[in-house]
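Troubleshooting log. The previous structure file for this entry was overwritten by mistake, so regenerating from the original sequence record. Sequence copied from the archived sheet and checked twice against the printout by T.R.
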Amino acid sequence: MSTLENITSSSIIFLLTGVPGLEAFHTWISIPFCLLYITALSGNSLILFAIVTQPSLHEPMYYFLSMLSTTDLGLSISTLVTMLGIFLFDAREISFNACLSQMFFIQLFTVMESSVLLAMAFDRFVAISSPLRYASILTDLKIAQIGVAIITRGTLILTPMVALLKRLSFCRSHVLHHSYCFHPDVMKLSCTDTRINSAVGLTALITTAGVDSVFIIFSYFLIIKTVLSIASPEERKKAFSTCVSHIGAVAVFYIPLISLSFVHRFGKKAPPYVHTLIANAYLLIPPVLNPIIYSVKTKQIRRGVLKVLQLSATKE
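Regenerated output below.
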C-alpha cells in the first residue's frame, strides 16, 4: 500500500497525447492549431478592448459579452502551452500538480462560459420583455455581482472535484488520451476506487452546464412567448434579431460539449483520433467562433472593433 501511496503525489509524471496514429505529422497539424489559437486570442482581445475603450458599448449586453470574451481567452490560454508543446516540440510530460491546475482552470472557464451564456439569456429576456426597465434592472452593480457569483460558483463546485483526485493511486499506465488534462481521462488511470470521483464529477456537470442549459431553454421559451405577443411583424423581427448572436454562442458551446460526452460514453469503438479531435474542438471552437459570430451579427461590436483597428493603424 505504501508503494501505491508514493505514486499518488507530485512525483507522478503524466504523458499527454497528440493525435494518435498521426505522430509523424504533428508539425503539420500544429499549423492549423496555431492559426486557431491566433484567431481566438486576437479576436477575443479585440472585442474586449473595444468594449473597454468605446463608451457606446458600456451597456449590460456588452458587459456580458466582455465576460464571455474573458472566459474564452482563459480557456484558450489554459490549453495553449500543452497542446502546442506536443505538436511542435513533442513535449508530452506534465507533472501531477500541473495537471490538476490545468484541469481546474479548463473546467472553471468552461463552467464560467456556461454561466455567462445563462446570464446573457437573462439579459435578452429583460431587454425584450421589459425594455423600459432594462437599465434599472441590470445596473453596473448588479452586473458586477453576477460576475462575482459566476466565479464563486465555479470555484466552489470544482474545487472538491479536482481535490479528490489527490486521494487516488496511479499504478497503471500514466499515458493520458488528450493533449490536456481531462477529469475522466485522469480517473481512468487510477487503480483505486473512483466511484466517489465519478459521482462528484457528474454532479458538477449536472449542476453547472446541465442546470444552465435548462434555464437557457426556459429563458428562450419566455422570450418567444413575449415576442409572439408583439403585434408588429417588424418589431418581432427586430426583437428576434437581437438574440441571433447569443443563440449562435450557445450552439457552439453546447454542441461540442454534448458530442464529447456522447463519444466518451458510447463511442468506445471509434478510432482514437476521433476522441482527440472532438476533445480539441470542444475547447477551441467556442473561443474561435464567438468573436466571429458577434462581429458579423452585431453591428455595434463590428463598429467598435473597426474603430480599434483604425486607431491602431493611425498610430503606426
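The CA atoms of residues 68 and 266 lie 31 Å apart. Archived copy saved in two places this time.
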